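Morning. Coffee machine broken again, so started the prediction first thing and wrote up yesterday's gels while waiting. Chain of 576 residues, entered below exactly as on the submission form.
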Amino acid sequence: MTLEPPVTHETPETHATPESRTMPETHDQPAIPDAPTWPAEYAERYRAAGYWRGETFGAMLRERALNHPDRVAIVDPAGAGRRWTYGQLDERADRLAAGFLARGIAKGDRVVVQLPNVAEFFETVFALFRIGALPVFALPAHRESEIRYFCEFTEAVAYVIPDVNGGFDHRELAAKVRAEVPTLRDVFVVGDPGEHTALADVAREPVAVEDGPRPDDLAFLQLSGGSTGVPKLIPRTHDDYIYSLWGSNEICAVDEHSVYLCALPAAHNFPLSSPGTLGALYAGARVVLAPQPSPDVAFPLIERERVTITGLVPPLALVWTEAAATTSCDLSSLDVLLVGGAKFSEEAARRVGPAIGCTLQQVFGMAEGLVNYTRLDDPYETIVTTQGRPISPDDEIRVVDDEDNDLPVGATGHLLTRGPYTIRGYWRAPAHNAKSFTRDGFYRTGDVVRLTEDGYLVVEGRAKDQINRGGEKVAAEEIENHILAHPAVHDVAIVSMPDDYLGERTCAYVVLRDGAEPIRPVAVKKFVRERGLAAYKVPDRVEFVDAFPQTGIGKISKKDLRAAIAEQLRAQTTPR
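Came back before lunch.
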């Protein structure tokens, strides 16, 4: 099944933006290094259709600050109840940008940003946006292995961290990484800097940025939840990402009166843009940061700030649904609960509205681009049984078989897509791009879906060798590489196993070396943990086997392994 875009468009009205005080907003030629971009005819189409408005993030914040400087933009209960207005956020971004410039951070430089849900996250990224430096968004759960890779691969010049978060001292991690990555000059710390530099000491009097970013420049690099080892980097431009924001706002009814609760990690694509914190700021709305997404933290914030919209992954949505029955907090302001990051089962979806008293909006998207939403006025059955339809009329959707032949409506196949906010290639990854994109620019999402007659997607699973652990993507190859470093391990295969709570968990099948001393599952988990990986990547289960099942050409049959662990789990839970 193919959904084609319209060939022609009406000429849109001009979308004017105020002149930025610090940067030019006009351009003649695209300037996107290290990443494939949209062919000229597509770029012209998207501009003519009014999707790409010629805005940058820096200019967007400036405009909001000029129009309503005293309106609250950010509420940070973890930061002694701070409430920053748009005017204050804009000024803080200007001052921090000047400090970064004084320290030699320039347009095009990469800066790894690993901050929890604190106001400084937005101060930092908007400062980088102002000068055209590229934030590389890392999650709070990432550890030494991932951070070192991000810094090395992007040749990052700086790294922004909290002092201690969740009991983990990021300053120690930063010291190790800086000693190993020659390009990494500065580490900026929110809180006690230790041997590094306090972010609070960086700001200076604002200065003019002579060569700021252009709308078609890269704005930042996101992490892909891909299946091939360490994450690939996703290059997003100001033009394409801002379209996804205001397109999402229109669908989710986000306006200046909305209050968005950021319950998930702020750097994740879902709470960043669907419609997320950046969508809320684009609308001139208020963003409330939740230090933790648990009901005991989030529910009082919903009551106090009169939160109208938030987004959760399915496991958290289930927790909230159960907790809502006994809470004493007033949740009546919550109009919309978006659930995405992994498929939300129909049974669970039907429980949300009655339990929490809000409208469920399913979201299915990817950091590479395409985002689908159920609409607020959709029939109830559509909301609970599908994962929505695309943002844009120019989102092209193909459902194909293994040979890329288009399938009829209702048939299950591989999802391919291209459009005005779906990338045309990963950053500095030609080999991956050759596999992940068709010659005519369609992105191979790795998702197995079917389309309804109304053009809604129903997600059936993943084709790629990737485990979706409650919305956290675990690449099997990455974990396998670490376990293979154990001196007793001959071979390993990571597969998914079904789980009622997270959807999927990870199972490591391990073959030991001949003559090796037997080891216990806990030793394998400890080995992975000590190699500096995020906790969610540590295998949930370890099984030792003498050999792996093989396919007809001698490859490990992960299909058979998945079937084996699923059957083992069924046997364990079946009453005798």
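The longest helix spans residues 86-102. Going to sketch it on the whiteboard this afternoon.
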